[in-house]
Amino acid sequence: MGPTTQNAKNNGEASGSAAGGSLPRAAVKKPTKEAVSSHPTCQANAPRVEVLRTYGNVFLEYTLMNEYAIFRKKFLPGVYIMPSFDSALKWFCVIFIRTGIYEGGAFRLLLEMSPLYPEGGVPRVIFDPPVFHPLIHAITGEMDVSCKIAKWRREENHIYQVVEAVKSLFEKIPEDSKAANREASKLHKNNPEEFKRVVEECIAQCMDHLQRESPAGDPNNFDFVAHDAHDLSLSFDESSLFSLRMDSSECSTEATKSPQRLQGLSWMRDGKPWAKEGS
């Protein structure tokens, strides 16, 4: 059985081949004035933000297009990434942890860029549901990655580096970082065995959460299908969503067993930024 993606379920159709298809024109929306003004990194820079919102859309589009292209070329192992249907500034991500105390975990997260991007600070990393981790807030699910990326430099930093930092913080928890979850930090330092037990429970809960329909209600969020207790795979038509290099041992779908590399689609298409379409 091949379950369909949310695009197919919601729109009655699936996206086309990598060569000839594309997502609908309305798939990505420019940030609204209200969304921009409410973002925490922009409230102190309102005049500049308004100028960027009015005149900087093309710059923002091509910056994000370039970031997405760089991300695809990196082929980060155990990482799924897809921009939101509703906002170019939000990217859905699922990471699989292969080593460390969180080994075997699969976690859903949201990358949220500032409307000032590539300025505006480090992209926010928000887990859904919150993961039991010293650097992840127990209520909001936001991870503090400042111990890896203290300051965002537009000339040096890229979005893929944020995901690399997130994975490294799961593989090895820093001992001297300021805790976002004091309970998790205290348990990690004082009672490693109990910490490991709670982490294992958290991993099981997150795996169960992944098997449910996407909680965000966004058609570009990932839906997973579990074949057994140790196998979690993307829906069959994952190749219509994104580009990913992986071997067949990492995913049981027939699509990934083909020697041809997956070449997926994105709203980011060369020479066709969304601000210019329909203008």
UniProtKB/TrEMBL annotation:
<feature type="region of interest" description="Disordered">
    <location>
        <begin position="252"/>
        <end position="279"/>
    </location>
</feature>
<dbReference type="InterPro" id="IPR050113">
    <property type="entry name" value="Ub_conjugating_enzyme"/>
</dbReference>
<feature type="domain" description="UBC core">
    <location>
        <begin position="59"/>
        <end position="208"/>
    </location>
</feature>
<dbReference type="InterPro" id="IPR000608">
    <property type="entry name" value="UBC"/>
</dbReference>
<feature type="compositionally biased region" description="Basic and acidic residues">
    <location>
        <begin position="269"/>
        <end position="279"/>
    </location>
</feature>
<protein>
    <submittedName>
        <fullName>AKT-interacting protein</fullName>
    </submittedName>
</protein>
<feature type="compositionally biased region" description="Polar residues">
    <location>
        <begin position="1"/>
        <end position="13"/>
    </location>
</feature>
<feature type="compositionally biased region" description="Polar residues">
    <location>
        <begin position="252"/>
        <end position="263"/>
    </location>
</feature>
<dbReference type="Pfam" id="PF00179">
    <property type="entry name" value="UQ_con"/>
</dbReference>
<dbReference type="InterPro" id="IPR016135">
    <property type="entry name" value="UBQ-conjugating_enzyme/RWD"/>
</dbReference>
<feature type="region of interest" description="Disordered">
    <location>
        <begin position="1"/>
        <end position="24"/>
    </location>
</feature>
